[in-house]
């Protein structure tokens, strides 16, 4: 990891033309990434298709509550809020 010498922000790899550079997302400072350092920034983890599908399925599921469950959740939320207000007083 490398930090920007101007403002201390973490620099991120960025493709500029055909060269990879480290760029500060805050101020735009750039420095050419050396061959040795480039290997440290490469993505090393791979996600299998099976795991990708599992993630997509999990994102598609939505929590559905009936009216009674919603009322119970609201009641619990209000109780928690009131209790936290009493603790801060």
What do you see in this structure?
It is a single chain. The two termini are 45 Å apart. The protein is α+β, with helices and mostly antiparallel strands. The model has no long low-confidence stretch (mean pLDDT 78). β2 (19-23) and β3 form a beta hairpin. A 3-stranded antiparallel beta sheet has the order 1-2-3, with no helix packed on it. The longest helix has 22 residues, at 67-88. It is elongated, with a radius of gyration of 24 Å. Helices cover 46% and strands 15% of the residues. It has one domain (1-89). It has helices at 35-41, 49-60, 67-88, and strands spanning 12-16, 19-23, 30-32.
What layout of secondary structure does this protein have?
Blueprint: E1 12-16, E2 19-23, E3 30-32, H1 35-41, H2 49-60, H3 67-88
Largest sheet: 3 strands, antiparallel
Low-confidence blocks of residues: none
Radius of gyration: 24 Å
Mean pLDDT: 78
Shape: elongated
**Helix fraction bin:** 40-55%
Number of strands: 3
Query: Order of SSEs, N→C?
Result: EEEHHH
Query: What number of domains?
Result: 1
Number of helices: 3
N- to C-terminal distance: 45 Å
Beta-sheet strand percentage? 5-15%
GO biological process, one term: DNA-templated transcription
Coiled coil: 56-87
Keywords: Coiled coil
Protein name: RNA polymerases M/15 Kd subunit
Brief overview:
The protein is of the alpha+beta class. It has helices spanning 35-41, 49-60, 67-88, and strands at residues 12-16, 19-23, 30-32.
């Amino acid at each position: 990891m490398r930090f920007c010498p101007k403002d201390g922000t973490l620099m991120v790899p960025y493709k500029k033309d055909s060269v990879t550079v480290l760029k500060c997302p805050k101020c735009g400072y750039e420095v050419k990434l050396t061959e040795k350092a480039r290997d440290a920034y490469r993505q090393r983890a791979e996600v299998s298709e099976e795991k990708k599908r599992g993630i997509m399925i999990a994102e598609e599921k939505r929590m559905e509550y009936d009216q009674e469950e919603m009322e119970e959740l609201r009641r619990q939320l209000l109780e928690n809020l009131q209790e936290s207000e009493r603790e801060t007083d």
